[in-house]
Design goal:
With 259 residues, this protein is of the alpha/beta class. The chain has one domain: Rossmann fold (3-Layer(aba) Sandwich), CATH 3.40.50. 42% of the residues lie in helices and 17% in strands. β4, α4 and β5 form a beta-alpha-beta unit. The structure holds nicotinamide-adenine-dinucleotide (NAD). Nicotinamide-adenine-dinucleotide binds next to α1, β5 and α6.
Length: 259
């Protein structure tokens, strides 16, 4: 008996086997969920379909979340195939590389719009697209980072986008709570992924993290996947609008001296 037997989950954001979305896919699958994966079209054949095959996932559809027509198409395809949806996972983000390097004050208008559109607005866009398919008890999960609340070197415009994403979680949770739909975010400690490699200085930050975090280790895909199982299941039935930290306790610290 799995915690997610009979539940159907659609996961956005698998780029490769290091992706947090992939860690979540494996964890939900292990608890019995039926999965679908959506990613950028350019990644599907080379990266996503081979991974989907490992879990026996048959629903693999392209979607650029900056394009409303592509969002509508994914949910049309899901409706045709499965009818309703119990779990929606948003594990994606984008900012121009140059905006994750220099000074935040240099962020261009175009770069700001792009980061906020793809990394924050897209949660509202895909949640709205999924709405006709979501039933009472459904759970929407997104991924955020401490850079939403604190100024983290080089995180820059992505921190602003994550702040907007976390506020969106609260507004969506308030909107959809009366329909029995929950919306939460997981704030993960640094994980070595493709997106993370675009943030200057990530390697040093990753290494320092395990010296400072109370649990004295880096977070794994399994750590994040476990929290996603909890948020996707009835075990978290009373939790909505929250940011759940999966960061080894890093965010509780006032001063990070390590040993
Ligand atoms: P990743 O590179 O594996 O995943 C990012 C995904 O975003 C990719 O699949 C990419 O294709 C997708 N994406 C980018 N633009 C898109 C668009 N226009 N339409 C559809 N998809 C698009 O990296 P990841 O670290 O697994 O990132 C997943 C989420 O986790 C992101 O929201 C990220 O900010 C968040 N997060 C990551 C860390 C970390 O340290 N890696 C920590 C906290 C939160």
């Amino acid at each position: 008996m799995g915690l997610l037997d009979g539940r159907r989950a659609l996961i956005f954001g698998v780029a490769n086997d290091h992706s947090i979305a992939w860690g979540i896919a494996k964890a939900l699958h292990a608890e019995g969920a039926t999965l679908g994966l959506s990613s950028l079209e350019s990644l599907l054949d080379r990266r996503v379909r081979p991974l989907a095959a490992q879990l026996g996932v048959e629903f693999v559809e392209p979607c650029d979340v900056a394009d409303d027509a592509q969002i509508a198409r994914v949910f049309d395809r899901w409706r045709e195939r499965y009818g309703d949806l119990d779990v929606l996972v948003h594990a994606l983000a984008f900012a121009n590389r140059e905006d994750l390097d220099g000074a935040f004050v240099e962020t261009s208008r175009e770069g700001f719009h792009r980061a906020l559109d793809v990394s924050a607005y897209s949660l509202t866009a895909i949640t709205r697209g999924a709405l006709p398919l979501l039933r009472p008890g459904a759970s929407v999960i997104t991924l955020t980072y401490l850079g939403a609340e604190r100024a983290v070197p080089h995180y820059n415009v992505m921190g602003v986008a994550k702040a907007a994403l976390e506020a969106s979680v609260r507004y969506l949770a308030a909107d959809l709570g009366p329909a029995g739909i929950r919306v939460n975010a997981i704030s993960a400690g640094p994980v070595r992924t493709l997106a993370a490699s675009g943030v200057s200085g990530f390697r040093d930050m990753y290494a320092h993290f395990r010296e400072i975090a109370p649990l004295r280790r880096n977070m794994t895909l399994a750590d994040v996947g476990g929290a996603a199982v909890w948020l996707a299941s009835g075990l978290s039935a009373g939790v909505t609008g929250e940011v759940v930290y999966v960061d080894g306790g890093f965010s509780i610290l006032g001063v990070g001296l390590g040993e």
